[in-house]
Amino acid sequence: MAGKFTFLKEEFLIEREWGGIDLGASMRHLRAGIGAGGSTVSEAAFAALGATSVVLTPVIVEQCEAIRVEFATDDGIWSAPLDLAAQHVTYLNKSTGEAEEPLHVRPEAGELAAGSFALERMGIPAMETPRGNVTLDTVLVLVYLQQHHAGRSTFGSVSAADMNLTLEVCFGVLNEEAARLKAQVHAARSRATRDATALRKANEQRQQYGLPTSFDLDMEQERYSRAADQHAADLLRLAQEIEHHQGVLTGRDAEAARGLQAVSSAATAADQAHQMLAALYGRRGLARQRLEAAEAATRPRKHCPECEQP
User: Fold this and answer.
1) Is residue 205 within a helix (H) or strand (E), and if so which, with residue range?
2) pLDDT, tens digit (0-9, with 9 covering 90-100), for 234-261
């Protein structure tokens, strides 16, 4: 089912000044008789959204530089100015302040079209199937225009098959799941192409300002990741070496403790030996005295022991 979609204002840029009218209701309820400009207002409004079948009146093409419409959807209030010379629309969400990249009315290389973006805001998927196509033009003709504003002279490329498929999609009676899936794939491919284009333009701008691109940042991140992995490996290796050296040091400490115990035992034994040697030295001195006395007793006497005379 189609979502909320209400036109709020339509303006024209003439000689660098915007001017226009407020629209109090959706365009399908716009009441105007023949010659009152209702079809002109409708055509200009839908051209600003990216409709490809609209044929603008010569007075608008000749005098206006741009057409801008404001509309409300389920996701906010939008402003859509169409540059008539460049044929691209720049959508701005006035509720959030976010602006989209300029979308061409007839894009190339599979980029998202301005009309497809408007259909997404309406909650209707753009489709291309063998049975027909769902485009902004078919949705406008069936849902948002009065019958006398939907003549083939205005929307010449809208066929009966496209209208039938659009009717099924808008009112939820489409039974071809394959068509839905194909439309989703096409929308996803368009979004991917748009994102890739935006990324390429962002990289070009960053290069112009001398800033690193996302590829440069990815390479730098990869380099830092490799360096971090190398540092982690070095830390692990150092931890293993420290653990090994701690084991060796523990063994050396045990050997030093055993050495200290041996030294203490040797010192005790040395003290005991010194004590034994001291006693031995005393007995040896006494023995020498006895030896000297014995030697003196055995020698022949030459002097009187009492008077020391010969």
Assistant:
1) helix 177-208
2) 999 999 999 999 999 999 999 999 999 9
